[in-house]
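Quick start: read one record
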Amino acid sequence: MEKTWRWFGRNDIITLEMLRQIGVEGIVSALHGIPNGQVWQPEQIAEYKAFIESAGLRWSVVESLPVSESIKYGGPDRDQLIENYKISLKNLGQAGIHTVCYNFMPVIDWIRTDLHRRLPDGTCTLYFDKIRFAYFDCCILNRKGAEADYSEEELAKVHDLKKTITRKEIDELIDTIIVKTQGFINGNISGKELDPVAVFNGLLARYGGIDKNALRENMKFFLEQVTPVATEYGVNLCVHPDDPPCQVLGLPRIVTSAEDIEWILNAVDEHANGLTFCAGSLSSGAHNNVPAMAERFATRTHFVHLRSTDVLPGGDFVEASHLAGRAGLIDVVRIFLAEEKRRRAAGMFDSRIPMRVDHGPLMLDDLDKSGFNPGYSFLGRMKALAEMSGVMAAVEHCEK
């Protein structure tokens, strides 16, 4: 598997030279300065690609070419936005970039309630606290009908939390859920918003009347339009699972399970319509058997995210060591190395599958540094890359 790394461009405090030194081969990145929905022009793609290559690396994966919200909820400008998307895919394919990761999550990308949960070993990690999230939903957003999404026991705990939570903790929840984990990913929210809660509620309102079936049909329409272009220009599209893989904030979520993934792949049954196999996102759903899903969808997987989680009592979950947790990454690596072998034997152009480690712990000197995007510190991911490199080497050695 190709060892890649998510890099946020020239403003990333982690440099390409640093990545070359730790064994990274390919870069996972995007043209972050281009607003969602605008065409990625050939000269912009070429310049960025050349910059990456000047450091002895290659631009392996686009993560992501964002799918605009209007495409997801079926707004009046959907057709034009899809045309722009098709042009960008064509330009990427002609530039020799053949893997595009995207998601179809309405409004909100990955969700955590704590970006710096201290662990017993002194490191920090990302954490999802279901009761704090329920408080955010019911008492900060004041979403109509929110209480129906939680059990009586959970609502009682929310009521107790309401008595003790401080203004600082409320502001931190807003900053964590609405601003920090959304702004650098999809650009819907920025840190400059005077009232991020109002802006966020406005985004949620656009999905009034959009249920799971409607969102599925909008995704199928999108895939029917863009997959032929991707196929023509040698681009593999790979949808990222919902994180966490469950319904949130009254929004439909359609990439949460094996059944969901099967539906998407069958909606447009072409090799170019594929999957980003994010073991971490999938493992945070107790209903998902991650190695079994890797086996089932290996032939349509074009990109792999290697991370793991532990699901805790009450619906909480926390990032786990890459060698532990419920993702079973050793088995996942074995499955995708076998898939690479199958593809090589078949003479497929995409026989080497790019993988990146994800959401490493904040540790050592990185604890005192600022400037990292949440979940994307340096040393924790370097440790994870070393661990996964060792796993890959061991699996390959044992199967000779």
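Residues 212-232 form the longest helix (21 residues).
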